[in-house]
Amino acid sequence: MGHRSIARAAGLARLAHTAVRDAAFDGACHDAGLSRPTVVHTDHTGEEGARATRKPLIAPERPTAVVYGNDIMAVAALPAAQELSLAVPRDLPVVARDDSPVTQVVRPQLTAPTRDIAAYGARGRDPAGTDRRRCGRERTGYSGRPRAARQHLPPAALTARTFTDPRRHRPFTGWTAGKPKDRHGRRACRPCRSWLVKRARGLQLSRRS
Questions:
Q1: How far apart are alpha carbons 25 and 34 in whole angstroms?
Q2: CB neighbours of residue 42 within 10 Å
Q3: Nearest by Cα to 105 from 83, 78, 85
Q4: 64 closest CA partner among 31, 90, 25, 97
Q5: Taking the model in full, what pTM does it have?
Q6: What is the Cα–Cα distance from 208 to 65, expressed in whole angstroms?
Q7: Tens of pLDDT along the chain (209 residues)?
């Protein structure tokens, strides 16, 4: 996706599942050839989400994206980034976690992994009342029937609702030498160029009329 470093707003450090997720995220970044991620542990509230957003963004090496442990913190990142004059997702791609309705009612809408929550819940107990434990051995529930074969649920799919590739969209600030340029002197992205050409043609037609 073109990212160089990714920060993560995680849960409480003392929780076991937080340690598992931290290790998995660190390993995934290492396998992708990215720098070691910056992890800020929080209590999953909006206030802590804003703090976890500001901390890596004011560092000398700002991350190119931030992943949040829940949707509330991801939503809180929008005003926190605005305070630092950063636009989401142009300057800071944000990835939520639960894909709840709140990720779609805010503007811009937030990218998030989509999961089959109902299937996750049904995995805990099969229709026969058999206890589904993590151990792979056969176990029986109160009905005395053997445990059904373990179901492998499909992995979460990332629902990208906004630009998350920093290489694809570059903010346009003006024309230079007859060609659209961004604020860094690079060529503007294709959507920007297309819009600018249409706008220039419209202005020429209006002046002629």
A1: 11
A2: 23
A3: 78
A4: 90
A5: 0.65
A6: 46
A7: 677 889 999 999 999 999 999 999 999 999 989 999 999 999 999 999 999 999 999 998 899 999 999 999 999 999 999 999 999 988 899 999 989 999 999 999 999 998 877 777 776 655 444 444 444 444 544 455 555 555 667 778 888 886 555 555 444 333 333 444 444 444 545 555 555 555 555 555 555 55
Token pair for residue 137?
A: 């051995």
Selection from 133, 101, 130 nearest residue 117 by Cα: 101
* Residue tagged 């639960």 (tokens): 98
Strand partners for 67: 8, 95
| Domain architecture of the chain: domains with CATH | 1-115+156-168 (3.40.50.2300), 126-155 (no CATH), 170-209 (no CATH)
